[in-house]
Amino acid sequence: MTGIAPSPGPQAAPTFGFLLDVDGVLVRGHRVIPAASAAFRRLADRRGRLRAPVVFVTNAGNCRRHDRARELSGLLGLEVSPEQVVLSHSPLRLLSRFHERRVLVSGQGPVAENARSLGFRDVVTVDELRLAFPLLDTVDLERRPKATPPPTLGFRPIEAVVLLGEPVRWETSLQLILDVLLSHGSPGGVPDATPYPHLPVLACNTDLLWMAEAGTPRFGHGTFLLCLESIYRKVTGRELIYEALAGKPSLLTYRYAQHVIQQQARARGWHAPIRSLYAVGDNPMSDVYGANLFHRSLRPGVPGDAETCEAILVRTGVFGPRTASDRPFHGPRDFPDDPGLARAAHVVRDVDEAVRLVLRKEGWETD
């Protein structure tokens, strides 16, 4: 029989917080995982409010933050505010030095709206670029111009490329992104030489795979990035350079999530420092790897930094009950293949077991 401690008062403010993945931990597609409902009943007080700060850190990026918050609220049966949701592209808000540049944005869904909400002011989508230069998109015979269009005049050069998430037509996005990089932002002309270093590329969500309702994992944006890297290397003989990577497992995302946790605690009147963070996820190569990388970077005693970040791996998503322990490295190209970083501090059945483990460690629940 498990006993749950009474809701802490001001004298017992939480000194820990949760960084919760969403897909494969709380939901599978549009279906809530039953353990998630149990976990949040355990985390809620008698008034239905969370007893500790929780941030939902997801590598999803082809959506709006308030839409994701509304969806989670409905699935989990509690109010989730947009401020509690960290999408893969959320940390790009911090990269203000790029916000005034003219950027090509790739992804699907409300890509232009998402880019502008992050601070980018001069946004061009892949579809807009395709319409401006109709001769560039030729893989699909049905989309080729039936007659030679007049040359495009007055197009201002692209100054950076922002990859928010996996697009729908990969062949179109791969071709046009490459055209922009090889032409230094002016894809209508013929460059004298291949520019290198190329224009800045900001990429979000490097997950090779993710878990939806299908029985096996699906391609993620990391698979698209792998294609782009391979094509660029094959065409130029050089490596594609990322100016910044956002989304798990990047440190940029975990530092941003820690900031959001602290904001949430202050908003609830919890003034005790957050000393321990618990990152719960289903993907060893993003959730666990990122949490461990972040833990190594923490500076105990420095204001604003937690003392620890423990990775808890659940078996309800990419890492399942029959997942082999000797899987090849699926992490992003720019992160070292360090087996220790992909090793969780705890491996549990589901998110409810993860929450119970944390509450026991923190003395809030007893067996």
From TrEMBL:
Keywords assigned: Signal
SUPFAM superfamilies (UniProt xref): HAD-like
PANTHER family: CDP-DIACYLGLYCEROL--GLYCEROL-3-PHOSPHATE 3-PHOSPHATIDYLTRANSFERASE-RELATED (PTHR14269), HALOACID DEHALOGENASE-LIKE HYDROLASE DOMAIN-CONTAINING 5 (PTHR14269:SF17)
Cited NCBIfam families: CECR5 (TIGR01456), HAD-SF-IIA (TIGR01460)
Family according to the record: Belongs to the HAD-like hydrolase superfamily.
Name this protein carries in UniProt: Haloacid dehalogenase-like hydrolase domain-containing 5
Organism: Ornithorhynchus anatinus
